[in-house]
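Anyone able to model this chain together with heme C?
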Amino acid sequence: MNHAGLRAMAVAAICVMWAGTVSAEPTFEGRKKCYNCHKSQGESWDKTLHAKAIESLKPNTRKDAKLKAKLDPKKDYTKDKDCIGCHVDGWGREGGYTIEEPDKFLTGVGCESCHGAGSDYRKLHRKAGEAFEKSQKTMARERLVEAGQDFEFAEKCHACHLNYEGSGWKGVKKPYTPFTPKVDKKYAFDFEKAVRSDKALHEHFKLDGVFTGPPLPNFHEEFQKKAKPPVKSDTGEED
Ligand code: HEC
Ligand code: HEC
Ligand code: HEC
Ligand code: HEC
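re: yes, here you go
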């Protein structure tokens, strides 16, 4: 074999080694998987404004709001790259919503938009749920964080709700939301108030305590205190 051939083989070998050590980012899978085990949250979410977020991009919907924001109420914005990203799950991310192949389980602001891309942590939910059922064994929440589950809710909300110039949120980048406090002060976003909205967030259901320890948001206790018992759903068919 000549030098070039040997070198190509060496490079290929290094690439293989490298790929083996770099763990892949968790990917978006759509809410169907979550529904199988969290029917109560799923059915409650279905009734929220977040669930219907893509409807607002269709022509002849929310006419007054669009006119006020200088948008065209007759236009179809459902395939517009300047809009769709904040009205679906996982835009621009592996497994997320695409205009070319719109997946109905990724429309609207769904589970993974707030809880994180689910390919890895949902497997831990299953494992931990089974161990808990068998022997009351618990698992540390830290492990969910390592698998991509998000507990920094405010940051998630801000990426959509405060993504406009002058909002004060550090991550701002185009495309911006057209609905800012300049258009109407009702669009000002106050996380502490918004996270308690029953128009946009699902209701809360009692946890058995399968996961323990930090990180926990400061409103966790408050939500659990008022939570209802969930409908026990099938845990065997998420694949
Ligand atoms: C195979 C079943 C299964 C699947 C699939 C699943 N989960 Fe879970 N999940 C569980 C179990 C079991 C728990 C522990 C519940 C408890 O403590 O009562 C849990 C807990 C949770 C919690 C609470 C964690 C905490 O702080 O204690 C969240 C949030 C959650 N799941 C979201 C999701 C989302 C989002 C998806 C989809 C990406 C998903 N789950 C998929 C079974 C599942
Ligand atoms: C992927 C982008 C995205 C994320 C993440 C997101 N939202 Fe939203 N939110 C929207 C969109 C889009 C709407 C408008 C839905 C509609 O009416 O069509 C909305 C609507 C709302 C509303 C209703 C406002 C009204 O008109 O009363 C509240 C409240 C809200 N979101 C709170 C939150 C909170 C709290 C979080 C974080 C825990 C969050 N959102 C995360 C995009 C997002
Ligand atoms: C950076 C994220 C983002 C982008 C980009 C974005 N939106 Fe939204 N959109 C939101 C959020 C957040 C809300 C909820 C605002 C609220 O009610 O506080 C919303 C709400 C709406 C509403 C409902 C407003 C109402 O009061 O009923 C419409 C209609 C809408 N968006 C259309 C669009 C269109 C059309 C575009 C593209 C020109 C677009 N959005 C781009 C985040 C975004
Ligand atoms: C707009 C953001 C948002 C969306 C979308 C969302 N969640 Fe949640 N979810 C939350 C917040 C905030 C909590 C409260 C966390 C806590 O108390 O520790 C929560 C809590 C939960 C819990 C813990 C038990 C409970 O009811 O409080 C489960 C399970 C859960 N969500 C599943 C889901 C599933 C399944 C979906 C999709 C159908 C979903 N979530 C969509 C924000 C969201």
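The chain is about 35% helix and 0% strand.
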